[in-house]
Fold:
Amino acid sequence: MTAMTLEVHDLGIGGLVRGVSFGIACGERVGLIGESGSGKSLTALSIMGLLPEELAASGSVKLDGRELLGAPEKELSRLRGNEMSMVFQEPMTALNPAMRVGAQVAEPLRIHRNVGKHSEALLASVGLPGVGRAYPHQLSGGQRQRVVLAIALANDPKLLICDEPTTALDVTVQAQILDLILDGVRESALLFITHDLAVVASVCERVLVMLDGEIVEAGTTRDVLTAPQHDYTKKLLAASDLEASR
Amino acid sequence: MMLEVRDLERRYTRRDVHALRGVSFDVEAGQRFGIVGESGSGKSTLVRLLAALDKPTAGSVSFQGERVDTLPERELGFLRSELQIVFQDPMGSLDPRMRVRDIISEPLGRRNPARVAELLKAVGLSEDAAARYPHQFSGGQRQRISIARALAPNPSVLIADEPVSALDVSVRKQILDLLASLVELYSLTLIFVSHDLGVVRHVCDRVAVMRRGEIVEIGDVDQVYDAPEHEYTRELLAAAPNLRAELARLRGGEDG
Structure:
């Protein structure tokens, strides 16, 4: 078995998430689907070490063989934004409204002492050359999400987690952002959370289906979406296919 | 004709923005009319003008043959009950301090428990929902409450402005099916606004595609989706994630 970049084993979060195990290899793209409240986002937050204080995770989460659960905050903060990073759904809340976007993109470079890169080049790599002096409110939703992506990819993370990164965007912009994400994770592990099965089908190689805090089905995207085993996956597919029931 | 829109224009002089320019279309009684476009295309401006919540800078809007864009607010009472809107975010459009029965009977102007019970049943909520508050419901249930309130004054036109964009896929399907059955049951004319092409195709029989304040293409749903004439419509259709096409691609991979 090849070494996994991310290995999650028997993850539990205060009864809300139970017995979740999966792995993502380097260069692999894994989708996590399920409805609001199914535990998708909690799973992502526990990997990043960003769970709300009243919740504790049990089990094991390993990044490149290093145990993250129970690791001291000092160690986690060295990893976040460096070896692992996350893109959230709403870029306006992820960005600092009072800070120029160039400075925000430079922040992960400065904090993790990455001298090999420059914020202007990073912004150019997500298709935003010369906007470093702009503030978030001066950009469109799609441009803001590009900035967030530039920040997340600044230090070439080994693991990128995207939580509904395109849900708030227009369809044409959505396609551009997905392309940028795919470009950015060629040599990283990607965990992609969404409720849009069409997006999962186009982005991910493997899929995990989550229901009420448990993974009820897992497999290659092709197997899970074309020959679903679990009733819930079937239901999700039926509800997503609006054309079938016209 | 239920609604006639002619050369509608809305410009914001201070910012020199043309939110709408030269928009014309008709909506027949009983039609399910979709308006598709991306952010900034003028969809919401158009909804406000149709509902006479804003005045156009040129052009006209007629409701059942009567111009409504020139009427003062005090003469718009009939339109306020004849034309109702369901918004995207139910939590933002329901008063959190009001019980469901008061929310639903507010447009009636008086308490009417029988009507509230009837409406709750029509939108698939149990009768005991009447005594509860909006926060005690899920997103899908809240949208059902918004729909019940919109139907309370017996409108002839229902405008749904991105009614399912904030909902999970399975809930989305339920709400779309509910809207379709209510349109049938109450002989409503539906105006359905969305950025989601798939959803509009599912619900509507006619569609207008908007870009930068203009309608670039209008026609029957099958015609616009299967044989789009405008470049932008083709672009939108190509960019939209299409589950069927993706599944076909995955299945294709299976055969070799």
Q: What stands out?
A: Chain A touches chain B at residues 35-36, 140-141, 170-175, 195-199, 201-202, 221-222, 225-226, 235-243, 245-246 (CB under 8 Å). Residues 4-91+157-240 of chain A form a domain with the Rossmann fold fold (CATH 3.40.50.300). The longest helix of chain A spans residues 171-184.
